[in-house]
Amino acid sequence: MDADNRFGDLEITDPKAMRALAHPVRLAALERLQRYGPATATQLSPHVGATPSVTSWHLRHLAGFGLVRDAEGGADRRERRWEAVARGYRFTMPEDEEGRAAAQVLAGEMFASRAELPMRWLTETAPHLEPEWLGAAMSNNTGLTVTAEELVALRDALEELLAPYVNREPVEQPPDSRVVRMLLYALPEAAADEPGAPE
């Protein structure tokens, strides 16, 4: 496994692909395929907020950028089954203006799509969890003072720690394991003399 990509994520570098993914239906469709496996546009439709024909159009658009592909082994060959190309994806903030703008649009859509997850977990899932799972859950909002290089080292160390669990095949998963959604954000603040600095 690449030391810079321990999760085996699809690396998105093309600004046009970033903009293509920065759409609520496309983002929801890709994330659903990554989480639950191959599906048809009809099966995805109720989960992405679009009709089957619109969902199909968005899937074809994602396929044009290599984010999804045809899945093999469908029981019904009349309906096209789709699958994600990788279990996850990642992108970095490019240095050129077009790339930065595209990455910012995609990041904004990702933040917006995940903003409700913690509250939905708290109100819909947590009340039904067994005490051991509820006790294992965690939520942190911690401030660190680090250099850019130290932040990269922290990111790499976290990915190295998590990679065996991210990449574990279904046959290797313990029978009492569950999917755990881990949202990690490292959001550097502006320097004191830069716009957006904390008051």
Question: Care to describe what's here?
Answer:
With 199 residues, the protein is mainly α. The chain has 2 domains: 115 residues, Winged helix-like DNA-binding domain superfamily/Winged helix DNA-binding domain (Arc Repressor Mutant, subunit A, Orthogonal Bundle); 83 residues, no CATH class. Helix content is 47%, strand content 7%. It has 8 helices and 5 strands; from the N terminus they run E-H-H-E-H-H-E-E-E-H-H-H-H. The strands form 2 sheets. A 3-stranded antiparallel beta sheet has the order 2-4-3. Strands 1-5 form a two-stranded parallel sheet. Helix 1 runs parallel beside helix 5 and helix 2 crosses helix 3. The chain is globular and about 60 Å long. It starts with 9 loop residues before the first strand and ends in a 33-residue tail after the last helix. The model has no long low-confidence stretch (mean pLDDT 90).
